[in-house]
Amino acid sequence: MAKSENKPAIGLLGGTFDPVHFGHLRTALDVVEKLQLAQIRLIPCAIPPHRVIPVATPEQRRLMLELAIKNHPRLVVDDRELQRQGPSYTVDTLLSLREDFTDNPLFVLMGSDAFKTLPSWSRWQQILELAHIVVMQRPEEEMDLADDFARWYQQHLATANDSALPAGKIWPVPVTQLAISATEIRQALSEQRDVRYLLPDAVIALIEQLGLYQRGEQSN
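Request: output the structure for the sequence above.
Response:
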């Protein structure tokens, strides 16, 4: 791909968002600011290849996201994976996004733990052909990778001059570490414990309204 000629840079954060919480939202904003992205598209997956099936329905998770980012103009919900049949593979999503954003710089956000599993992903080496990868790291964290993967990582590390490229580089970005887990939130809700300050109040209100994550729903 050629350089993007200053087309807006777009971040992509996928996940089950079951439910969305401040750990998702704060790290997204960190990356927006540090890489000067025009927006981040939050992409709820339909069928996660590497995780258990979400408890909340696709429609409920999309609605929670919409409520969570209502007042953040650079955060956008993108539900294309919910409209597609089968497992939500990142490469397929990127191919779809490239139809809409042909030459824009695209940045796929993933935590360092997820990044370390990248070689197990479907067609993983094709990802850098379609987008950059942002590795969200804990401050001062060192990447502990297998030898071959470590060499691949080093070969593709970005420099400041690479920001206009539409794809092809790896960007390690330190982000605010909020030890918040969607699994623990669901467990707390099933035990009727208070989850304020872990996720937006509007999301909590919707969860209560819909009766989500009640006792007996944690088997998924």
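The beta strands are 10-15, 39-44, 75-77, 106-111, 132-137, 170-174.
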